[in-house]
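Notes on consecutive records. When two proteins share a document, each keeps its own sequence and its own token line. Never mix them. Below: protein one.
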Amino acid sequence: MTAAPTSARNPKNDSTTMPGLVAAARTAYGKGSSRKLRKTGQVPAVAYGKGIAATTISVSPKEVLGILKTERGQNNVITMKVEGANAADLLVMIKDYSYHPVTRELEHVDFVQVKLDQEVMVELPLVFTGKPVGLAEGGIIRQVYRTIPIRCLPDKIPVKVEVDIAHLKLGEHVATKDLKLPESVMVRLPEGQTLIAIVTPEKDRSAEEAAAVPGAPGAVAGAAPAAGAAPAAGAKDAKGGAAPAAAAAAPAKDAKKK
């Protein structure tokens, strides 16, 4: 089945639109120091990359959350100005961040240095539009992936990938090979990987039951990203658990278009 052309929204992402962030170099370490820092309205962070040694810094949690709440979220390329002993101007992205397990306040941020001529691996939201023909035939929408792993240059990262599924009939699907993306964007999933399908409710329930059995084959609902695919970037709490704000490239729940 050949899907309708899929588009990737990619508003201009250059130095005139990149968010800025001011960071301060810090020399004190340890839990006690971090607690004191948070009381001043800052959170500990670290910036690292191939071209720089790990640099301990502090940033404003309000400014970081403001960036995460934008349309691009973690996929923003940020111009960071580090003030203090290790003064520097960096181009970074948010690699990871953590929340307090009880207060849910931002506790720590990891930034990774990027270069505009070197590709990065990120997750993009996969959004479908249109009411599939297959719904009138008794089918339901099975969205296997809510996000997809891609690789491209930092300033070429699309905001999201949209696919029109109005033409899909019962039993038809959209696979990775059906996505029509710019040549500079590569999806890191097998070409035949099903992303969205129109299935019968009975078949869908069978897939969920099979997925509940360890090692069961053919479980559409439990389809995992391809080997070697980039893990979903997102937040973790202080104990390593997934935070509510994190988006995962995990199989999605059913959705019936009304």
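Protein two starts on the next line and is unrelated to protein one.
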Amino acid sequence: MAELDRLIHEPARLRILTILAGVEAADFNFLLNTLGLTKGNLSSHMDRLEKAGYVRVEKSFNGRIPHTEFQITPQGKEALEEYWKQLDSIRNLGAEKLEGKE
């Protein structure tokens, strides 16, 4: 059985990717309020996800106010889908062992 993607397995990053998979894009403040993370914590997680190619970051300005928007990439969607499949596989294996179907 393949290892779970440790980058996605971290709870905050899993929540971030799950939210982004359900929307076209989300801005920094929306994620900050929805996830209840600090600005630094959210920025750190997004940096790791961006470096892995799982999210796309677009920075712009609304007048003088910075605006940062995030979008899950096709690679991120694929990695998240694979993560859920692996998790289901682990759950099914556990259920089979409980039922004695090894």
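For the record: The chain has a mean pLDDT of 92.
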